[in-house]
Design a protein that fits this description.
The structure holds 2 protein chains of 2 kinds. Chain A is mostly helical. Chain A is built from 11 helices and 2 strands, in the order ααααββααααααα. The longest helix of chain B is centred in the first third of the chain and has 20 residues, at 2-21. Helix content of chain B is 47%, strand content 19%. Chain B contains 13 helices and 15 strands. The chains are: A mainly alpha, B alpha/beta.
Amino acid sequence: MSNLFDLVIAGLATGAIYALVAVGFTLLWQTSQTINFAQGEFVMLPAFLMLAAMHAGAPFWLAIILGILLSMILLGLAFKLLLVDPMMRHGVLPLAIATMALAIGLKEAVKQFFSAEASPFPSIVPTGDISILGYSVSLQSIGVLVLAILAVGSLTMLLNRTSLGHQMQAAAQNPTVARIIGVPVERMILLTFLINAFLVALASLLITPIYLAKFSSGEVLGQAAFIAAIVGGFNQVRGAIVGGLLIGVLDNLAAAYVSTQYRAAVPMIFLIVVILFRPQGLLGRAEERTV
Amino acid sequence: MKSTLLMGALLAAVTATSALAQAIKLADVAELSGGGATVGTNWKNGIDLAIEEINAKGGVLGRKLEVTHADSQSNPGVARAQVQKALDAEPYVLLGPGYSGSVKVTAPLAAEAGIAQIMGGEAAELTQAGNKFLFRTSFGQQSSMPKVAKYIHDEMKAKTVAVVWVNNDFGRGGRDVVVKELDRLGSKVVADLSTEAGQADFAADVGKIKAANPDAVFVYLNEEESARILKELKRQGVTAPLMGETTLIGQKVIELAGDAANGARGHVGLTTDAPVDLIKAFREKFSKKYNYVPDHNGLKGYLAVYMVKATTEKMGKVDPKKFADTLHGLTIKAAEEPGILMDVTFSDTGDIDRQSFLVEVVEGKQVVKQVLPKVN
């Protein structure tokens, strides 16, 4: 029982990170029909930006701030202006392929300028265990879970409770009408790119101490988050959250109770079942776009 | 006068060209990126260091050594293509790869070309297929795993053991030998867990180990995964002693796993912390040149080049066709060839016999606890 509890908590912690990345997938899709296949690499890069800052002599806290800011500039602003905007005119598919190329480019660049080897990365959450309901639970898992929930909670508040959030929703649901009523649609779209960059930088900060900083570490994450977004519903932020948590827990339970060898197949089978019986995803809505 | 000068210049040019043509060409195919980047980079740097040293002292039989490095991307398919490309250039000897899976698919190519292949793979089966051109730089699993099982049974007094291994040629080979040996000695395997190469999350695997409550845990994964599982074992509070091979207690693993590596033990065929003067000197030279402490793969690459030197000097000529025959059964003594670092004997199958070490990680450093002598 203690083992099951630990597995669920560890799964929720990993799932919360998948959720952060999956939310980014849905945000970009909603506002600009961008399927970002470089999303995994977007999680890999900020850790290296932070490591570079630390190598230059910055303390960890400053490296985090610099890493997040640089990520927002590179993976938010520059990504939108230099890749998405020019490619968008040619349709969804060329843009998706361009993001695949970007993923390869980012991996190779990190390999070239940093190293092909894994590097250790400090954790912002202290190691050790705490006791919850009589069970010993890892502080790191709890810390990751709490931070991810805070981030997603704040985002949901922003989207649903503020004027800015309503404008973003309007820009996503019907850009033409939103423009007529005075919503600065372009700025709203840019904002979602910046939010996505912030989320992936946060995910990077939380996952890298566990996965280690490596040029290829985004591959697994990108795939898991993509599955999570589809399972939850590609057109719903709350769907991405549920999808992320589900995939995280399912992966851990599958490894423990089904087979470690076939653990990677279980989320895929789950994805197929969801697509067959509920194509719009668990919480998604057919033919609707909203953030 | 003018024509004499012209003749002289021509002669000098011809001499220079022939000296260049006389360089002995080696080809290296290694894991320079992908999951085995730590392995391949150390291996490559070891090779470069040895070649630099040998050339600085006049080369082998008066000829300089040259090497080309190719990246297998830690992928057996890519390794095969790179080895074919390297063999097309007709090298004297092929060096690498380091991963057993890549060695397995490339060894037939080198054998077909009649070129000796000095590699880093440790899977037991590699030298059991009757290949007459394949040579190890370290122990095969059939030599090291019985020592590991004996240590778990005799020294750790473990009656129950959890075995966790990586599901590739290297991991499966080691797992098969160690499980068989543990069974023979009377230690019961209570958890037998396969994991995937590149696996990031070990929470479930460690949960299973914890549930099995073994007296000892045998960990046989590649370096990065070893670091991740060590962190997870610590995180979940597993207190059973950990035993492994070089891949559990290597320098890179210690760097990546931090505190979590403390207490882990391993049987090591080669370690830069060995209490051997020549190895200490190697470690110093390597660290000075590359600004980091090498792991055993750096030693393997370095030794591979000195194997080429010692064998060629034994033959007294550069003859790729006779190289493998000469190396079979050859004993190279460190007193005569210091670059070989420790006395070593090569069997007819390309396996090696050399002294080895039992190492424990203490406060982030490898500490040699026992020296196990050469068998013959």
